Amino acid sequence: MARATLVRRARELLVIAERIDITLGEAIGLSTIEAAAARWAREQLQRQHARGLRWSREFFVQIATDWLHFLGRLEVPKPKIMPFADRIADFAAYQRDERGLSPATIRNQSWHVEKLLGWLGEQNLCLDNVSLEDVDAFLAANGKQGWGRVSVATSAKALRAFFRHAAVRGWCAASIATGIDGPRLFRYEGLPVGPPWPDVQRGVASSSGNSARDIRDRAILILLATYGFRSGEVSGLQLEDVNWEKEIVSIVRPKPRRTQQYPLVSEAGEAILRYLQQVRPRCARREIFLTLKAPFRRLSPGAIYHLVSTRLDALGIQVPRRGPHSLRHACAGHLVAEGFSLKEIGDHLGHSSAKATRIYAKVDLVGLREVANFDLGGLR
Known about the structure:
This protein is mainly α. It is built from 17 helices and three strands. Helix 10 (212-227) runs antiparallel to helix 12.
């Protein structure tokens, strides 16, 4: 770990050692740690060393848990048993082996199924005698808890897939899957609007400094905006994916499940090369983009989201979606404005179907105005 991180952890350990007695020879549980953390957080707030209780308490719990685990003094809680875990695993295996769905889709569907089964347990219900009314009540409860219409519809779709599989296995009645109905979603109701292209250029320009963060962020922003890469495609980019001799960058597309090659434009190549030469740590990791501080690891989706959103916030750019996917939408919108066909845009974005690209025709305001102004020559 970085020296600054070690110093911060060491200071926290001194505080923890004063407030948690490890001389009794007993295992220490999470409740004891959290109680000590709450007292410490209140002390910090009273001394005006912190603005709130949350971060002081959470950092105390994190460091104390790691320390006690290292000493072998942490009371390990019994693993939480997920009800019907074997059936969720069977469903996931079917989606993977028989339907060929991507790991991300399977994780998402399994998460929704786990949420339902956990909710059924809280209601003292069981999967073996679940009814359609129970599923409807679960979806309605999520809607009341703040889920949007799209989220509830996504959950309903995942549960339909699960109950279809469950009916085939004989776990439930076949009528449940056919009766699950989420909120109605209108086609193209959510337009994929990204920042205006001049704002995207401002965002890239904001990372033109000489700090390690600016150098790394500039390379990532250029890849997101120029090629419309997804955040996972950027974070998973390997050193061998850039062919410097042929000036080609290769991306493994998760949805079409194929490798796609792009010409390495000079701006992107120069930004990546500068990052590799001046910033990227020397380590055994094969991913190009790593964390700035040790322990060095691949950037998480949350880290890339934070990277993009903070740049947009700093420039006062107001858009509905502030993550890396907004730059993908901005790239598509820019290509539409430049006159590229939907087929060319779909190929650039790695769409396996033209249906995924059609929605960008609705954000082509210039083209839509031309259609609206088309003179029919007096025809009625």
